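Students often ask what a holo structure prediction actually looks like on paper. The answer is less mysterious than it sounds. You provide the chain, you provide the ligand, and the output is a string of discrete structure tokens encoding the 3D arrangement of the protein together with pantoate.
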Amino acid sequence: MIITNTSVHLKDLISIAKRDRTIGFIPTMGALHDGHLSLVRAAKEKCDFVIVSIFVNPTQFDNPNDLANYPRDIDVDIKKLSDSGVDLLFIPSEQEIYPMPDRRIFDFGSMDKVMEGIHRPGHFNGVAQVVDRLFRLVQPTVAFFGEKDFQQLAIVRALVEKRNLQVKIMSGPTVREHDGLAMSSRNRLLTNIQRSQAPVIYKTLLEAAEKMDTLEVAALKKWVHNTINEGKILETQYVEIVDARTLQPIKKWSDAGSVQLCVAVFAKPVRLIDNIRLK
Ligand code: PAF
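The corresponding structure tokens follow.
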């Protein structure tokens, strides 16, 4: 595996790699887990040359403490990626990605005015800034994103469409621990008691899917909220049932063809997200 820190070197390597070959790209913020590695496996299946980036992007953090405490484990990450057969790892500095402050404001209409967009102001603008910048540097044929970040995936697809970027976006299913907890770099920040409670989130989402036939949308949201909060260790920040295409909250089950249940839950100060397709 080749490792580079500069965009100049990256460009040289890519111009060689690109000849008649497809490039698969997985942007990450490091602290890698099997969710990331499953995207690497998908990229290796679909593409000839696989590139991963590790960059903890400051512009997508609305909370300086969250940025400071974001887990970093670069040596272990390098080993995991090298063992997984990644061809090229890009670990840029902040100066490399943002030689000048990025003041671009992206307009995603109503898509980023819900869920994460409300509770993490500016988050998706920061994601769009860095993903746009990385796509321009890496010029991937296909880029891979996890479905755990359901809203991010929709925003990235919208970004590609709006800016007419020549990259195909593929998604990978949420990878879960043996007890159902969605894999996340943030899980390692949980205390033992929080970790033991955290599987309640997915268990509740699964049970909610079973209750769709008997409860209306508002009642189901309330039930999810109460069930997750019951043990007093977890506290929902939002429970939303949205049109899976537009991300807009629905009021009746007939309001949308595909419906997603999305939650953000605090195990303070750690914040976890998860989602499930209801129909
Ligand atoms: O999902 C992430 O890890 C980040 O939001 C991403 C896509 C790498 C952009 O910084």
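The two ends are 41 Å apart (CA to CA).
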